Amino acid sequence: MDGVLNLWHATGIANFTFPALIMIAVGCLLLYLAIARNFEPLLLLPIGFGAILTNIPVAGLSEPGGLLYYVYHIGIDSGVFPLLIFMGVGALTDFSALIANPRMLLLGAAAQFGIFATLFGAILLNFIPGFEFSLQDASAIAIIGGADGPTAIFLASKLAPDLLGAIAVAAYSYMALVPIIQPPIMRALTTQEEREIQMPQLRTVSKKEKIVFPLMVLSLTILFLPAATPLVGMFCLGNLMRESGVVDRLSNSAQNEIINITTIFLGLAVGSKLAADKFLTVETIGILVLGALAFAIGTASGVFMAKGLNKISKSPINPLVGAAGVSAVPMAARVVNKVGLESNPHNFLLMHAMGPNVAGVLGSAVAAGILLAIVG
Amino acid sequence: MDIGGLLTTAASLMVTGMVGVFVFLTILISAVTLMSKVVGRFDDPATAEPTRTAKIQPQQGVPQAHIAAISAAIAQFRNKQK
């Protein structure tokens, strides 16, 4: 009889707690969004599964000795996984649109206002009872506005590891929601004539320029913002491997195998942070609200900056491309292209939007560096 | 509570952060513009040459071996027709 009782106590049914069941349901919701709705499936699928695994009673996958515990400590606590992803993103990024029109960097800079305004908003939330965000927490939440998953995870792992699960889930969910969040804001802030503006074709960029570019970005980061060099450095390494053309094998590995393997474990490790006691808090709701706000403000400030640039610039600039300043490569650029085509079926803005789009990646990495340097 | 203090820190962080991002990216803009000019100066003769040679190549006409092969094939075809 004792044996049967012991066996019963070892089953999941006897050990389930209500919060853990809710978190497993959250994991299933993420799986549903990934599989049925195709929302950032590459990340939401492993994150959702990680959330299920970590909440399994008895197995203790996220406790010392468990697989997810080690994956988290090796990959995220150390900051290694987001940086490996950044190397792959660098190897996937073509900077020619930005090199051809470097002023687009200003749009990437303006869109980072979403980050810093949200930081202020997160501290404001402290007036509501139940919220106690420190400056570190607020900075980690605000970086969701950078619309850059690896940057958000990197900064959260350094500044607010407890909030990492909620921050990563919010960042990736909103990145998937870019086609829904951005267009209404873009339409509200621009006139029909502005949306119809056609931009002159970009010049071709030489191979030498593309090779010098990552080295130059790195040197400037070393000189002015060494705190951002982990992110920018890995990004530039990936990009140099791509553009140099002499290490195609390495560049291909960074773009495919390395980024894919890392994505699996990054997702699992983030999912392991979706434990009931950490996620089912009022703070998570605050993070989700602030994340959406950060995206909206970033989009709006990018559009405003583009409007301003259009007024003073000799060559016309369609204000829509400003919205691509929140990184979310290449989704934000595609959204700009789509909204542009709605107003003028002959106006293809994709290449023009890629400039601010990759500028946004650099901008959010720089913003992360600034936050690390001041708050970290 | 020192929320007031936190708020002032957050506000100053907002200003320094935005100024920092803008200053850094503005420096990058001038650096990229300068780099494009410098590289363009080095690059011009190098890129011009290959395009010139590329244009000449097709004008050199069909290689002798191809002409020989084609005329042989035509001759064979005509022989068969008879």
From TrEMBL, chain A:
Cofactor(s) the record lists: Na(+)
Class of this enzyme: translocase
Catalytic activity: oxaloacetate + 2 Na(+)(in) + H(+) = pyruvate + 2 Na(+)(out) + CO2
Main location as per UniProt: membrane
InterPro entries: OadB_MmdB
Subunit and interaction comment: Heterotrimer of an alpha, a beta and a gamma subunit.
Its job: Catalyzes the decarboxylation of oxaloacetate coupled to Na(+) translocation.
Protein name (record): Oxaloacetate decarboxylase beta chain
Organism of derivation: Pseudoalteromonas shioyasakiensis
Lineage: Bacteria, Pseudomonadati, Pseudomonadota, Gammaproteobacteria, Alteromonadales
Automatic annotation (TrEMBL), chain B:
Compartments where found: Cell membrane
Primary location class: membrane
Membrane topology: Single-pass membrane protein
Ranges annotated as spanning the membrane: 6-32
Pfam families reported for this sequence: OAD_gamma
Entry keyword set: Cell membrane, Ion transport, Membrane, Sodium, Sodium transport, Translocase, Transmembrane, Transmembrane helix, Transport
Catalytic activity: oxaloacetate + 2 Na(+)(in) + H(+) = pyruvate + 2 Na(+)(out) + CO2
Cofactor(s), names only, from the UniProt record: Na(+)
E.C. numbers: 7.2.4.2
Enzyme class: translocase
Function according to Swiss-Prot or TrEMBL: Catalyzes the decarboxylation of oxaloacetate coupled to Na(+) translocation.
Annotated family: Belongs to the OadG family.
UniProt subunit comment: Heterotrimer of an alpha, a beta and a gamma subunit.
Protein name: Probable oxaloacetate decarboxylase gamma chain
Organism: Pseudoalteromonas shioyasakiensis
